[in-house]
Amino acid sequence: MSLSYSQYHEDYRPQLHYTPPKGWNNDPNGLLYHKGTYHLFYQFYPNDTKWGPMHWGHATSPDLFHWQTLPIALYPQLKGQEDIWSGSAIADTHNVTGFAPGGSPNTTLIAIFTGHSAPDGVQSQWMAYSLDNGLNWGYYAKNPIIPDPPKVRDFRDPKIFNQYHEDYRPQLHYPPPKGWNNDPNGLLYHKGTYHLFYQFYPNDTKPGPMHWGHATSPDLFHWQTLPIALYPQLKGQEDIWSGSAIADTHNVTGFAPGGSPNTTLIAIFTGHSAPDGVQSQWMAYSLDNGLNWGYYAKNPIIPDPPKVRDFRDPKIFKYGDYYALVLAVGDHVNIYNSLNMKEWQLKQEYGFKVGSHEGVWECVDLFPINATIDGKTVEKWVLTVNTAGRTQYFIGTFDGQKFTNDNPDNLILWVDYGPESYAGVTYNMEDSGRRVFIAWMCNFGYINEVPTSVWRGGMTLPRDLSLINTAAPDSKLRLASIPAPEILKLNQNSTKISGGVLKANTSLSIVPKVASKLVDIELELDMSGANQSADRFGVEFKGAKDWLRVYYTGAGNKFVIDRSGAGRHEFSKNFMLTPDAPRLTTGPVVSMRLVLDVSSVELYADSGLTVMTGSFYSTDNLTANISLFYESTDNTKQLKCNDININSLKSIWN
Description:
Belongs to the glycosyl hydrolase 32 family. One of its GO terms (biological process) is sucrose catabolic process. InterPro entries: ConA-like_dom_sf, Glyco_hydro_32, Glyco_hydro_32_C, Glyco_hydro_32_N, Glyco_hydro_beta-prop_sf. It is built from no helices and 43 strands. By secondary structure, the chain is mainly β. Among the domains are: about 5-140, Tachylectin-2, Chain A (5 Propeller), CATH 2.115.10; about 490-650, Exo-inulinase, domain 1 (Jelly Rolls). Strands 30, 31, 33, 38, 39, 40, 42 and 43 form an eight-stranded antiparallel beta sheet that branches. A hairpin with a 6-residue loop joins strand 3 (about 55-60) and strand 4. The protein is globular. The model has no long low-confidence stretch (mean pLDDT about 95).
């Protein structure tokens, strides 16, 4: 716009501050920085220097000081609108609104503002969009997007923001929008919806009085955060600690009123009181699919026994015509039975001097899972307990009252060998036969120091569990886990790289065709021609300055996540730079599946027998260069590589 010199040098005209050439203006609106340009929209009436029907004026600047006034962006021309009042703008970089036509090179700009109508004074929230960087705007056909609630006088000035793209914010894993979270709780699949409750303190990024946060998903990946489910508001309770949830399909608790179409959801959790530290088991119930909860009037349902310090984390499940519950009791587990979920009888104490006791036992689970033995399908039961920063498991049998371990008492088995997988439990799945596992993707050794911003904590990928044969000399069953197959819904492009022979001390670029910071890589390597007792091979992710390596080494027969070059780690001396895990099967063929998020990597080796989860804190684009590498002290050695599959993934927040 061409403006005369005199127009901007009238008496009292600011020379350092932006004002429109003429007319009335008030509130700044839609402040947006996009592709090198600052956009300033503002409340504007062009026909007088006094208040009138509000428009959105528009100016842009490359540097926040030198402004160019553009044509009016939004007019009060919609039916029933007297004003375009204040609001905000955002760039729809992933076209989640769908306004951008296919193949459009431009990002849609979205304005969300208050539409004010007269004479009734209704204030509702409307949407407009621009496909040409804010010069021309269209209005959403189904406005308003947030109607004016009844009897509310002031309902205006919306601010939209993208909450899920801060530095280090996972794009494949669930953390809450803000606050502290730890253990997954109450994992329940009910009527097509996955419920994820979790330990949550909303007022800080460090632990405080624990609540149960709540999120739901139709597919285990796209999560909607819901209002807090359980608050520590009961007399004598300082915390709502971990527990589980189940659907009371037969109303054995009697909480559902007669004729109610909804199934009651039951939560059983540990109520922790202060200052005496008592831990007892409490019950809550919901009649509206988990949105609102009431507390059982006769809590606790399992009182804290005398002189027991650790008595917590109940997992309830259906067994035949009754219910069973497993509970962590310091150095062992208790197993209980009940017909109505309110009155419980102790049936077994198990685990004294069995497995690992490096730390207190907590966050327990007990579930059936089928195995193939001598060509026949056999039901086995898996008992998991969390201790010393990892999830330990035992395989055996269960008769509804007593668990029996199939393996020697001194055998120690882990679900995930990585440093950031703890408090793992599985979903109650309504007899689907499927077993889905989620853990807390953090480590208590340094969680309070990690450099995230408004949140701390998060969950691992959801994983399908199975029992498979190790093919080792003893041919023992072991628990394996792989990413839940719903991850395939996140694929935006698949790249296949032909296999071949990789010579010692060389590398092969395996960058996907479609760039993404989120990748899922599957490869299979035959080390028959390698020095199997010393050589190392794996995948390197490398950005402009940072790098991350995940590899197998014959020296020690183990897998390693080397995150020593993957950004920040100065925040804690306890942050393990090169965690490792044993290979649990034999044979020359090693399979590796790697799922890389913006701040974590998960390794699933040998069909999920060895699993590792590791976090890192880099803002570099580590998928800029991805390579398969092979290192050996003998240049004559070689590695055979089958076809490599790389999936570029979409963010779950799109």
